[in-house]
Design a protein that fits this description.
Layout (H helix, E strand, L loop, with lengths): L2 H13 L4 H14 L3 H11 L4 H5 L5 H13 L5 H45 L1
Length: about 120
């Protein structure tokens, strides 16, 4: 069981304790604070080769992807750059299959923060 599955179970269990009004507030919080799927896919398509979508999701190694891309273009004259560029392009394609799970994780994290905020407000009243 990975962290996303555990987080999903925690969010599901915590949502059961909320009233309908609080659940609506959590839904609004998620819509306003989770990563936008449109933004994620547009960044992947147009700037993904530089790792821009990874910066959006706060994923590690985004800078490494950008560095490999730059090194690849600088050394392409020596043919060595093709290896770097090939690695980045493969990485870029693999990321396309990861975006959906990253979006799910972003929504769950936003829901978790929204639930915590709702519970804090509930305890103040």
């Amino acid at each position: 069981m990975n962290n996303v599955d555990i987080l999903e179970q925690q969010v599901f269990a915590a949502r059961k304790k909320l009233s309908t009004q609080e659940q609506l507030m959590v839904n609004d919080y998620v819509e306003n604070n989770a990563v936008s799927p449109v933004a994620a896919w547009l960044l992947w398509v147009f700037l993904g080769i530089f790792g821009a979508h990874r910066f959006l999701f706060k994923k590690p190694y985004a800078a490494l992807m950008l560095t490999l891309e730059i090194v690849g273009w600088v050394t392409i004259v020596l043919i060595i750059g093709l290896g770097f560029l090939g690695a980045v392009w493969i990485w870029w394609i693999v990321d396309a299959f990861s975006i959906q799970s990253w979006l799910k994780e972003s929504r769950l994290q936003a829901a978790y923060r929204g639930i915590n905020q709702s519970l804090v407000n509930q305890s103040k009243n």
